[in-house]
Design brief:
It is a single chain. By secondary structure, the chain is α+β, with helices and mostly antiparallel strands. It folds into 3 domains: 3-40; 49-237, no CATH class; 287-359. It has 10 helices and 10 strands. It has helices spanning 3-28, 65-70, 107-116, 124-149, 163-179, 194-211, 245-249, 254-263, 265-275, 285-358, and strands at 45-46, 49-50, 81-86, 90-97, 103-104, 187-188, 191-192, 212-213, 224-230, 233-240. The strands form 4 sheets. The chain has a 4-stranded antiparallel beta sheet. It has a two-stranded antiparallel ribbon with strand order 1-2. Strands 5-8 form a two-stranded parallel sheet. Helix 4 (124-149) packs antiparallel against helix 6 (194-211). The protein starts with a helix and ends with a helix.
């Protein structure tokens, strides 16, 4: 018997022995009569909510000859937002399907992005950044996997062309992890586990980007979970509606107010009627500045009129005061003469009356 045949027989005997041990342990536990295993559940639902399950990396779906040769360009499968408008909730309401793994930005980050980058209703720029990051992560995942495959080809020198370009695109990650001291620790009998870790992290990040939803102009905490009847089907949704809190605490973006005033007077009238009493600026900045300048000019004209007429009024006041003084002096003089005359009459009448009493 050769050594190779002996090794094969030993491996077969070991597999049979392990199988016998596991089977008898299961029988002691009551299998298969008593132990039926865990109850079957719907893997697409957790806690009564659906799971958003996009494929990362996406399944190959070539549409052209280029994609058939080099593979299709990875595209994200994000959660769709459904917008609706009415005269009760407003014109910028939307809802999304309430998945158990939906992700939102933190409130503070969403607020900072809206205030510093003047983001209103349009989130196109953020969605482009999200899709670009998703594509880069998927390509990075592909390059890391291809780089790992080079370990299994002893005849390929990865530091020659064209492989050197692949090494240059990927090995900077190894350099970073090496300086962090992780490369030496993450090995298994000489086999590096770093590529597996990088591939897992890249896939998890790409998968998270598929679940990320931007809620501008609302903050993520303004969403209300509930149920909605859509096309005759009752669905779990998260609804964002009414006036966004940032439009009340800060200011509505000027471009949006200008759009309402010039092109959508129906939205302008709705906002003015519904939220005008809150002291929110509905008019665009240009109109508000014109109104402020008009009020300032009116006040300035009134002040100029008062200033120009002031010398004439002073002269009139002087003349009037002189006339009043002269008239008062004349009246006082006449009144004193009148008193003196009346005093003489009273005195003479008094003495005549005394003379009559004496006689």
């Amino acid at each position: 018997m050769s050594l190779e045949t002996l090794g094969i027989q030993l491996r077969v005997q070991m597999v049979l022995a392990v199988s016998w041990v596991i089977e008898n342990m299961a029988k002691i536990m009551g299998y298969p009569e008593k132990s039926l295993g865990m109850p079957a559940i719907n893997p697409d639902r957790i806690y009564g909510l659906k799971l958003h399950n996009p494929q990362v990396p996406p399944w190959p779906d070539p549409k052209t000859i280029f994609e058939s040769i080099f593979g299709n360009v990875p595209k994200s499968s994000t959660i769709e937002k459904f917008y609706y408008a009415n005269t009760t909730d407003g014109y910028y309401n939307f809802y999304i399907d309430h998945y158990s793994n939906v992700l939102f930005l933190p409130d503070w980050l969403s607020e900072w992005l809206q205030l510093h980058f003047d983001l209103g209703v349009d989130c196109t720029s953020l969605e482009i950044i999200r899709d670009t990051l998703f594509t880069l992560l998927v390509y990075m995942l592909f390059l890391v996997q291809l780089r790992s495959m080079l370990f299994f080809f002893a005849t390929i020198n990865p530091y020659t062309r064209p492989w050197i370009y692949l090494v240059t695109a990927v090995d900077w990650l190894y350099d970073v992890l090496y300086h962090l001291g992780l490369t030496k620790r993450m090995t298994f009998y000489g086999f590096p586990l770093i590529p597996i870790a990088i591939a897992g992290i890249s896939g998890a990040m790409a998968d998270a980007l598929n679940h990320l939803v931007f809620t501008m102009p609302y903050l993520p905490s303004e969403g209300t979970a509930g149920k909605m009847l859509v096309d005759g089907i009752l669905r779990d949704v998260i609804v964002f509606r009414y006036l966004p809190s940032l439009w009340y605490t800060d200011q509505i973006p000027n471009e949006l107010r200008k759009f309402w005033y010039e092109e959508r007077p129906d939205i302008y009238q709705f906002m003015k009627k519904s939220y005008g009493q809150l002291g929110i600026d509905i008019l665009p900045d240009g109109i508000l500045e014109d109104q402020s300048q008009f009020r300032f000019r009116n006040i300035l004209n009134i002040f100029k009129t008062i200033t120009m007429s002031l010398p004439e009024d002073v002269e009139k006041i002087k003349i009037l005061s002189t006339e009043v003084t002269c008239n008062c002096t004349m009246y006082c003089h006449e009144f004193s003469h009148y008193l003196i005359h009346k005093q003489e009459i009273l005195t003479s009448s008094f003495w005549e009356h005394i003379d009559k009493l004496v006689w």
